[in-house]
């Protein structure tokens, strides 16, 4: 018998394809049935509706599906985060052994968007089973027994990706942390937590920032090559800082994944989020156990630090990795949060830069003022106005500098002889 390629049975082949979650549920159900799985739809579990339960042999998955109207990474990554958390909760409560499977769908998902999802998965939920699919036929599943479901989308352009220029790595996670350390003397200690000193070479910078000497050397070399370090011998001093911050801001425009949350027991107080972070911070210190780092972010952080300008935006906080138990300890849940979120949590792409520089304000971990400026700059809720307020009131010493000709020269002709700086 010849096996025909699996095709989703659309009633109208010229229609734009499934767009609602219910239509995508039908698509996923047909897909699993076509590959020999038993499928049960709309399984009730306590007061929740499980999207799909699929089983074959000894394998059983509880599927939580989220659909987006567009296949953009900034839309898909938050949905993936929520689907993973909900699928895990449903699988844990299921009366029989079952594994969670989070499925993300959209009318069309490019390979680059799929790569963004897989990169997020590898970094923050490497043990999660996940499915990614669209109406054009693209399917990518990760998990035991799911490999045969995969298929490349037909007739998609495969463009060669050129490697990013070396300058793209100027703002890697540890580089951002070291840049904050170099800028720290220009900012008050209660707005940015970092060592403050003078460093003659990469070795001294590495020791102060607790990174490898090679990492510090690469940053120092690149800053010199691009003209962002004073060319005089010592100490290391950033110049052309306005251009450096402009480049940093542009590199930061990528939207970080965020997950909407609701309070399990809401309290009519703007202090509920800071109070939850304060309690979590104290509990983590008392227990002296490894726990995901967390801190207040964006507009809530600006207000906590005394530079609030935009009001009415739900508070944001950063969490090092998604952990449902941690969210529950804080009194938060993703259940029912899509329509009316009380709080947003973000998993920062550059974790070391965010959490190492965070300050403790009134017992609450708060993102540093430079991080707040970067994060609010592109936020649609008057983020540009908030960023300008911070720049005017706090960051002026960084942006305002008088450059000498000697300071602005580049040194692209320098070679590996610079290893002597080590």
Listing every helix as H and every strand as E from the N terminus to the C terminus, the arrangement reads HEEEHEHEEHHHHEHEHEHEEHEEHHHH
* Low-confidence spans: 1-19, 156-166, 403-422
Helix coverage percent: 25-40%
Span between termini: 68 Å
- What is the gyration radius calculated from CA atoms? 25 Å
Estimated structural class:
alpha+beta
The strand order across the widest sheet is 1-2-3-4-5-6
How would you sum up the global shape?
Answer: globular
Number of strand segments: 13
How many individual helices? 15
The total number of structural domains is 3
Task: Give the percentage of residues in beta strands.
Answer: 15-25%
Mean pLDDT: 83
- Biggest beta-sheet profile: 6 strands, mixed
Please explain how this structure is put together:
By secondary structure, the protein is an alpha+beta fold. The chain has three domains: 21-149, 3-Layer(aba) Sandwich (Trna Endonuclease, Chain: A, domain 1); 171-240 and 403-421, Arc Repressor Mutant, subunit A, CATH 1.10.10; 258-398, no CATH class. Helix content is 36%, strand content 17%. It is built from 15 helices and 13 strands. It has helices at residues 21-34, 73-93, 111-124, 173-183, 202-209, 213-225, 241-251, 272-287, 298-304, 324-329, 351-356, 369-376, 383-393, 396-399, 405-408; strands at residues 38-45, 48-56, 59-67, 99-106, 129-134, 139-142, 258-263, 294-297, 316-319, 332-333, 343-346, 359-361, 364-366. The strands form three sheets. It has a six-stranded mixed β-sheet with strand order 1-2-3-4-5-6, with helices on both faces. Strands 8-9-11-7-10 form a five-stranded mixed β-sheet, sandwiched between helices. A two-stranded antiparallel sheet has the order 12-13. Strand 5 and strand 6 form a beta hairpin. Helix 12 runs antiparallel to helix 13. The chain is globular. It starts with 20 loop residues before the first helix and ends in a 14-residue tail after the last helix. Mean pLDDT is 83; it is low at 1-19, 156-166 and 403-422.
